[in-house]
Specification:
This protein has a domain of 67 residues. It is an all-alpha fold.
Length: 155
Amino acid sequence: MEYTSRAVGNAALTTGIIGTSLGALSGAGGLAGLFGLGPRPAPADPGDKPVTRYEMGLFQQINEKNDEIVLLKANQYSDNKDAGLQAQISQQAVWNATAGATIGCLTQQIQQLQSMTKLMIPNSSVAPGWGAVVVEPVIAPAATTQGTGTTTTGG
C-alpha cells in the first residue's frame, strides 16, 4: 500500500480549497455578485415589453393549432403506412391462394398417375389379335439346406 506524504496531502487539500473558493466567487450564481464582480446583464432590448393576457391567449391558440397540425400529420403518415401494409397483406393472400390451388392440382395429378399404375388394361386393347396372354408368377428354385451334409431340391 502506498500513502501520500503529509506535504503532498496538504498541498492537494490547499489547492482544492482555493479552487472551490474561486469557483464560489465567480459566476452568475456565485458570491462575486455581492462585490460587484459578477457578469454584467445585457442591456435591455428596446422592443422588450410585458405581454398582455390577450397576447398570451393568442400564443396559446397558435401552439394548440401547431400541436393539432402535428397530430394530424402523424395520423396521416400512419394511415398511409397502414394502407401500404394492407396492400402487401392482400397481395400475399392472393399469392397464397394461387400457390394453394396449384399445389392442389399437382396433388390430384400425382394421385391420377399413381392410380394408373394399378389399372388393368385388357390384352385385346394393347395387342389385338395376339390371343390371350397369361401372366404366371415366377417360382424360384428351392433353396439348398446346409449343415446336415445332404442337399435337397424341390421338385
